[in-house]
Design goal:
The protein is an alpha/beta fold. The protein has two domains: 222 residues, Spore Coat Polysaccharide Biosynthesis Protein SpsA, Chain A; 74 residues. It has ten helices and nine strands. The radius of gyration is 25 Å and the shape is elongated. It binds guanosine-5'-diphosphate and magnesium ion (MG).
Length: 314
Amino acid sequence: MARLFMGRDAEHPLIVAGLPMFNEEETIGTVVTKVLEYADIVVCVDDGSSDSSARIAEACGAIVHRHRANRGYGGALKSLFKKARELDADALIILDSDGQHEPSDIPALLEPILAQKADFVIGSRFVEGGAGEDMPVYRRLGIKVISAASNLSSDLDIKDTQSGFRAFSKLAIDRLRFDAEGMELSLEMLEDAHEKQLSITEVPTMIRYDVPKGSNFTAVSHGFTVLSWALVSLSHKKPLLVLGLPGLGLFATGAVMGLNLAQNVTGQIDSYIGPGLSAIWIGVLGLSLMATGLVLQSARGFLRHLIVREFGLD
Ligand SMILES: Nc1nc2c(ncn2[C@@H]2O[C@H](COP(=O)(O)OP(=O)(O)O)[C@@H](O)[C@H]2O)c(=O)[nH]1
Ligand SMILES: [Mg+2]
């Protein structure tokens, strides 16, 4: 049954649920109806779905916000945050409209926010009590790799960086800004929250894979976009690690190849020219990577120092 109050105070905070929606006519009706049991307002962002999703969502009680051109998952989330600000929401909860997330988990995600213990809550498959029902093994592996790369750059130690089931406090709704168009937004948001010192926590949830249309993206395209974003971001933050370490590896390989050759030189010098040159260019490539890593790392340190000294920001 729909909640009858419209929250406006501490006892009845205004809960807005946001659903990015793209051709989800099979599931959207059930999802909107169930979500309305836990939220005051449901907003669906439709990116030119060619099916009846928008009509069904409206008939079930959701507000439908339409984009004229497809602006991707990231564009849908930007509109949802804007709408939450306009509505002056006390909390925003984002979930998929394909039925993968369980609306009855919404109170668990909202609990840390309403208790003012967190600003950003992730419904996680990988903390104790959470699960990915019928989750393909390659997806599980992909998410672990992406989360590891993301945690290397942000030190956040988030277990499920790819869950689309997320809740935000009023502070997070006001402060978070992101640019990404696609699923890489999942990481950009986390980094932005970390930089703005918003507190992030994970609560266990179940995410289902036995729904009619679990994903608009193949695991490979999702993995590739998000992982490349994670690596670019990591190279901005830790250039010495991303460039210097492989550089050191290449330099060591070149040196070992060269030494091996030098030890085995007998008579016929001609036959050593090819492998000798390879050893040299591998070594030089390694050295230049290390040098680039070092320069970028110190430039980063220098800029940071300048910003702190001149503007008092960190
Ligand atoms: N508005 C909008 N929603 C999208 C777009 N792409 C995906 N979605 C919705 O975003 C949610 C997550 O997408 P989905 O394909 O299920 O991603 P996955 O489950 O993480 O692989 C679903 O509810 C989709 O309907 C898009 O381009 N625009
Ligand atoms: Mg999905």
